[in-house]
Specification:
With 208 residues, the protein is mainly α. The chain is 76% helix and 0% strand.
């Protein structure tokens, strides 16, 4: 039982640490609405399930040891984050609405889900974290059922955290207090996404 709580605490720390997923959910929650933030959180969670599944079956080791596979994922992820970040930087002020009774639907549900999904799926750091988790943290003799359980736990904890983040950011009182700086927060998140994209593009396998 103590091992379960220790692993759960580790997953929680990983989920709340600032990264591209945090920036993506923050941007979509503030730039659009709670719905877009929640759908982005769901996309991140589903992506983590995919990461966990292929890590459990050993495919992550192949990716981490293949220069071509790692480079493709790295540059696709970097390009995607930079692209989303630049879009945020060039968003017009009138599109970043803070109307508490009506929010313009400038993003479809699928687009919000897709942004969260690919932000995590194409992040090589997420791959390396899951690989390290299932290689170094989970015992080698653990059953497939237990490993899949941990995979679902990772996805659920991240979903709860990012959903809570989106809910807090879009709460009426919080949004009222952010009304004057919301536009600039969205811009900052755009810069953060671009910075993460550049950082990922410069990653080396030996540094992950």
């Amino acid at each position: 039982m103590s091992e379960f709580f220790a692993i759960t605490f580790l997953i929680l720390l990983a989920s709340i640490s600032p990264g591209p997923d945090f920036a993506m959910v923050t941007k979509n929650s503030l730039m659009y609405s709670r719905k877009e933030g929640l759908l982005s959180a769901l996309g991140i969670s589903i992506s983590l399930l995919i990461h966990a599944t292929y890590c459990i079956f050993g495919l992550a080791i192949v990716i981490s040891q293949s220069l071509l596979a790692f480079s493709v994922i790295k540059y696709l992820g970097a390009s995607y984050m930079i692209y989303i970040g630049i879009k945020s930087l060039f968003a017009k002020k009138e599109k970043v609405s803070l109307n508490l009774h009506h929010t313009r639907r400038l993003m479809t549900a699928f687009q919000a889900f897709r942004q969260g999904f690919f932000c995590n799926l194409l992040n090589p750091k997420a791959i390396m974290f899951l690989l390290a988790f299932f290689t170094l943290v989970v015992k080698p003799n653990s059953s497939l059922f237990l490993e899949m359980g941990y995979g679902f736990e990772i996805a659920i904890i991240h979903l709860i955290w990012f959903s809570l983040l989106s809910y807090i950011l879009t709460h009426r009182n919080v949004r009222s207090n952010l009304s004057r700086i919301q536009f600039y927060i969205v811009k900052i998140m755009g810069v953060v996404l671009v910075a993460f994209g550049v950082k990922i593009a410069l990653l080396h396998r030996s540094l992950t």
